[in-house]
Amino acid sequence: MGFTFVNLGLHPIIDGTEAERLRLIFKAVKKENVVQEAVAIAEEMAATSSTATRAVLRTLRSKQDIGLAAALLRESDTQAQSFASKDYAEGLKAIAEKRDPNFAAFEHYE
Fold first, then answer.
1. Looking at the structure, do residues 22 and 59 belong to the same domain, yes or no?
2. In this structure, what are the phi and psi dihedrals at residue 53, rounded to the nearest 5 degrees?
């Protein structure tokens, strides 16, 4: 059968706030604040461990192509690699010293 209205493109229009509530988008912002919000999100992402971010993205993307058991094994391997990284050590040290971590101090490899 299907969803006739959707197939015809006659679906109800929702605004950004509703799309955010439904988790269709990350965050709804006013048009005049888009660049400011995008920069703030980018700065927040840049302050995190690029090693961990790459690992998370790689793991999430791989789950689309492989079965659950293989994905869980890959995730386990990725966590083991992360625990051995300089970023992990820096994160733990920063927590112990009650300061923000400095992940930029390390050279990162793909």
1. no
2. -60, -45
CA distance linking residue 109 with residue 85, whole number of Å: 11
SS3 35: helix
pTM exceeds 0.90? no
- CA dist 40 and 5 (Å) reads 38
pLDDT of 93 reads 94
Q: Are 55 and 14 in the same domain? A: no
Task: With a cut of 70, list the residues of the chain below it in pLDDT.
Answer: 1-11, 63-64, 105-110
Torsion region of 98: left, alpha or beta (phi above 0 gives left; psi -120 to 50 gives alpha): left
Domain range for residue 38? 8-46
